[in-house]
Amino acid sequence: MTEVDDANRRTRADRSRIDRRTVLRTAGVGLVGTAAYSSVASAAVRTRRATIQETSESEEEGPVSGEPDEPSDDDRVRWAFDTGRDVRSSPTVVDGTAYAVSGDGVLYTIDAESGEQEWTFDTGVVRSGGDVLYPTPAVVDGTVYVGSDEASTVYAIDAASGEQRWSYEAGSKVLSSPSVVDGTVYVGCNDATVYALTADGGDEVWMYEAERPISASPTVVDGTVYVGSWDGYVYALTAAGGDEVWRYEVTSSVVSSATVAEETVYVGGADTRVHAIDANAGEERWTFDTGGVVGSTPTVADGTVYVGSDDGTVYALGADSGETAWTHETDGEVRSSPTVADDTVLVGSDDGTVYALAADSGDERWAYETDDRVDSSPTVVDGTVYVGGWDGHVYALEAGLEGSSDGSRVLLGTLGHHGDLEWGTGGGADGGGGTGGSDDGVPGFGIGAGLAGVGGAASLLARRLERTAGD
Predict the structure, then answer these.
(1) Is 191 a domain residue?
(2) Number of separate helices (H) and strands (E) present in the chain
(3) Which of 20, 32, 63, 273 is most enclosed, with most CB atoms within 10 A?
(4) Is 148 domain-assigned?
(5) Is 31 in contact with 462 (CB distance < 8 Å)?
(6) 257 within some domain
(7) Number of structural domains the chain divides into
(8) CB within 8 Å of 128: residues ≥ 6 apart
(9) Residue 129's CB: how many other CB atoms inside 10 A?
(10) In terms of residue numbers, what domain contains 317?
């Protein structure tokens, strides 16, 4: 065992805490050519309802293992675990453990009930500043799969011990999050390539090259891989061999991951539109213009598409028609991707708030304000909302619900999932067809996987695109 392997299983050394922010950052991004767009973040000043008590730390030890932050004056918070750096990764919760990646390059595992740290794994990258993407982990059959930005590596880690099982060095930065279906790991990369690897050993099965970087996650349903690229296309590839089935032109960067329901692919783009695409033919069914970059990944539940936009709005659209059912305005870009549980839509905003909205009307049921942006996408498990924040915390919030996330985003494993997810029950490399449906109205399309580290990524794409794709 190497010193690096041993260090990956130990609690990390002391990390400086992020100062509390009372004024949200203003950010503008611009892309050139086919990826041209601009987005200016609101500088809304919010009164914070949540006052987080500082975690006890010493100069020699970082966040104290087993000692989550204790919130004051807010009964909605079950616990708030401080990583010391911004958390844009979306939590995955499996078998009583929450998994999330922080801006310090560390994968944290947290007891979902108590908020106590279990183990950490260092991906080998600690970066200063805001120019970093944090992939969301996929947890399948006792193994955690996660990518690394600067290390250009995909890791497979034992979920119980935190020991590395294997690693695969890709051709460039791994900006997307792995999808794991039927024994194969699918992941996008900054070298414009989709890689398919064996889940048990990390051996390369196939690779497909697009024209520009791929930060969205491949979503795998019924033997087909759906993935978008900064080159302005959504691709459909065979899961078995990586052969191109069709490509759909968006004309600007595809900055969100796809979700699939009722043989329709839904995806957002830097062209400010939500696109509904025939999953079999690759033809447009409808588009909807939000007025802002759509970096949020859609979720579909009960015939409605829920998605956020950089125009600061959460949209509910008819899945068949694209017609607006309702809108809910926030005070910041909505780059978080919604989840649906018990007829409630949960979503974060750059105004620092986690919103709970009525799924049928968009009326606000409650809102919880953190100390900074919330680009992480929530996952609900047994009535508890797990979500990360730019203030450095992974939160567990009482949602006032009894159920778990059941929209297509989480059921397909896009941007976080929970232990009830039936991985690969109708699609994958064997090309098998789906035989059943799911509670969110996705008959005929089996539960695949499509984790994407896109929550919080849209604001970073402009800086990325200014660089050479193979950096």
Answers:
(1) yes
(2) 3, 36
(3) 63
(4) yes
(5) yes
(6) yes
(7) 1
(8) none
(9) 6
(10) 3-42+79-465
Structure tokens at 132: 């970093």
Tokens coding 245: 């089935």
CATH code assigned at 437: 2.130.10.10
Residue 374 lies in a domain: yes
CA dihedral 407→413→417→418, nearest 10 degrees, is 80
Length of the chain: 471
Query: Which letter does DSSP use for residue 459 in this model?
Result: G
Query: Which pLDDT tens digits describe the chain residue by residue (471 residues)?
Result: 443 344 433 333 333 223 333 323 323 333 333 333 333 233 332 333 333 333 333 333 444 444 455 434 478 999 999 999 989 888 999 999 999 998 888 999 999 999 999 999 998 665 544 444 578 899 999 999 998 876 789 999 999 999 999 999 998 888 788 999 999 999 998 899 999 999 999 999 999 999 999 989 999 999 999 999 999 999 999 999 999 999 999 989 998 899 999 999 999 999 999 999 999 999 999 999 999 999 999 999 999 999 999 999 999 999 999 999 999 999 999 999 999 999 999 999 999 999 999 999 999 999 999 999 999 999 999 999 999 999 999 999 999 998 888 877 677 765 567 764 444 433 332 333 332 333 333 323 333 333 333 343 343 443 333 333 344
**To which residue do tokens 């990583």 refer?**
83
Q: Give dist(CA 145, CA 102) in Å, integer.
A: 15
